[in-house]
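fwd from M.: "can u put these together and see what the complex looks like"

so here's what she sent:
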Amino acid sequence: MAISDISHRKRYLAEGNVYLPHIAVIEKIIDETSGVRTFHFNFRDEKLKAEFTFESGQFGEYSIFGIGEATFCISSSPTRRDHFEFAVQRVGKVTNALHRLGVGAEIGFRGPFGNSFPLDYLAGKNLVFIAGGIGLAPLRSLIWNALDNRAQYGNIDIIYGARSPQDLCFKYDLESWEKDSSVKMTTTVDREAPDWQGNVGFVPAITEKVAPSAENAAAIVCGPPIMIRFTFPVLEKLGFTPAQMITTLEKRMKCGIGKCGRCNIGDIYVCRDGPVFSYEQIKNFNSDEY
Amino acid sequence: MTKEIEQKLRDEIRDLLETGKVDHIIGYEAGSLKFSTTPLITGDKADVDRLVINPFIYNNLSVFLRDMCGKVGIVAKKCDARSIVSLIQSQQIARENVFIIGVPCGGIIDLAKVEKLTGLDRDEIDDIVWQKEKAVVTFGGNTREFPAKEVLADACLGCAPSDFPEYDIFIGESESLVAGKDLGRNKIKELEEMAPAQRWEFWKNEFSRCIRCYACRQICPACFCNRCFVEETEPLYISPVPKWQDNLFFQAIRMLHVAGRCTNCGECERACPVNIPLGALSKKMEEIVEELFEYRAGMDKDAPPLMTAYQLEECEDLIR
Amino acid sequence: MKKIKKQSIPGLLGKWQQEFTVFVPSKASGVSQMTVWDGKDTAFLDRNRNTAIPPKANFLPAMEKLFGFRKEAGSYKLEPADGEPPRQLLFGIHPCDARAIAIIDMVFKDAYEDRYYLSRRQNTVLVGMTCTSAYDSCFCTSLGFGPADPVDVDIMLTDIGDTFLIEEVTEKGKELLADAKGVVEATRDDEKKAAAARESASARVSRKIDTGEISKRLPLVFDDQEFWEKISAKCVSCGICTFLCPTCYCFDINDEMLRSDSGERYRNWDCCSFAVYTKMPVENPREEKWRRVRQKVYHKYLFYPELFDIIACTGCGRCIRQCPVNWDITQTLSNLPAGTPVKK
């Protein structure tokens, strides 16, 4: 069925024009890895700066005027709105241009678009976050959201891995979560590395080792497609039902609003009906292109 | 005559599949519209009876060769055979993986020309029969004869009579062509007679219609780059937005890229949905290549491709 | 019902020209498309076969500026190009194209309103004309309407020789004809002639598909890779079927620098058959051609109907006529295997 009520997503349309970006200013740049940068930004318009909010899982369309637009999730939490964040991996024209920006540079922002992590469903549950590489970015928003509302959730497990220690993103978050006694933090790298004392192994394998309980739990998984495809069977073995497994799907996007056509999987548009889906929903797609 | 040739073709191809000499074949079968044909790509010998030969077998089937595995039997007109040889020269296909079935071709009837001459659309014409050097067209109770020069495709009219470059078997006998070096050059003559400013206005107008469907590129056997320059973003050569400047630039670069490999089969112009006279560009390009380098694409499978080999004897007055 | 003699149409178009930009089907540009009326052309009155470029170009142009941007004193200023578009009147629209416009209206209205498209739509009047000679590629009658049905237009003209029978379909249409010179009451005889013309127009549509059977089989054959590979073998992945299709609407968004400190953002037509359409750095879910061909068929005949209860195809046949390899969607649809229910 055609999407019904998204009136809440239309709140921040610039002049009511869904294709017109807001102007935002880069406030801080953090080098996560050699190819990944986090940008802290804020809106130039004071009113928008004060009012803008979003839900964990949603994304924006970020513009470098003259170069183009690209899709990134909002990686900061809506519980911390003094600024907003997104993480960019350098892979092409727009992302390279973003990496060349300095503090004070202006970008465009359209959003927030997409659906969000189902907080109602997750309330009261034990949360198991499983992420690989830059896949931690959308999850990070939800993790801080949950930690800022700690009492609403049960146990929190975070399993995170990357190719090598240098490829671990958000190291400052990993440190905080490691120190947080209400969180069980497991970090891993794919292969042995000098000066690495932690776990070694692919994220799906480490997940199997950690063996989080499926009892009253939900698993939120994000990472390279191959990691997700190998993690789901592990979770199923641990007793998680498809409804208990949540992920974000990635597709090439342009408009972000379900019109340009390209991000579809069957009759759903990842930008509009997603990017957050449960594995149960994914299994019911009328297409295998996920 | 054609019915015999068709039957011989079907028998030969059935034999090729049955004996396992080829894994797949590419040929022509009747299309779903009047006076149309469509590529038949199959490994099933039951499909062989659908193969046809007629004056409407316009597709250059060599465009499908690169994506096929195993040994492929391909029905080829002379221009198609040149394209196949050109692909072999460019090391895109191996000679031993292609079984070339040459077919006689007296020229392809350009339906757009017939439509213009009769004032009717293709589906309003009752019949078009090719009778050696003329087409007999029946419509609404009338019958008119048009000489070959008026109905054959420009690319066919310019088909210089020379030997079929390469084949494994040839069905029937080579047909005589109503062709000559000066035929099929009407558009080029028009353009050559224009002053540069006038010519620029002409192409600006033509390319304002281009919608960047890339049919010209996709249908061309010489356009086989895995990543076309159009898709490069760093640096960005041309914008994907179909402004006439970028459209013209796209086509100009494409023509230059295929120089020395384009065999002027005319498919780019036939495929263009907005009627841009691309054949004039490709034919002119072919003439320039022959003039500068005394080279014709796709005639000798052992010759190095023009643009990747340097001959000491090459003229150098283009280097200033 | 009213009627008007064909010879009075130029006068009527002239009157309309005062308020609207009037478009008529014409080949003057080099390809048949809706073209601004030159005040003289009347060829389309007697011979109006479907244009090559569909009228969607009047609502979703092949390229459309979204906004301009300029850097002033170190800060960006955006100038949206979403102003009020000029009023346009499209004369001689066929039912297949009118229905197609109504079909893509749905996606541009859904969820977020697309101001650019919708404002053009609002400022447009559609004057339809019956199709008197369907192509051999037409199959509109299989999609729930016919070549003479007054679907989704403001006025419908039925050709009865030297005269058009006029049906005022909407209030907008009625207003347009108020004070129109040459518009008189039609006689019973005229109406009989029109009914006969409609019959014969429908009878001319020879190509047919069975949408009921198609809807039944499509969900079952999605995974039949062998079928889709065979079907898609001759497709060359160009954009002709998409760009010339009146119900295709996929677009791309691109920026251009015009000067070192200013430029524009456009949207332009894009095509799901293109190999790079869904390409991401990490993977391309439709790398293989058969997946792209499958997507085209399914989007039109299954996915769009799931969202909007209507097949995104109106049987205009342009894709069949213009495809450089004569890939024929009606052949594909008529040869869908019976399929086996897929176990999930």
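replying to her w this: Chain B touches chain A at residues 233-234, 236 (CB under 8 Å).
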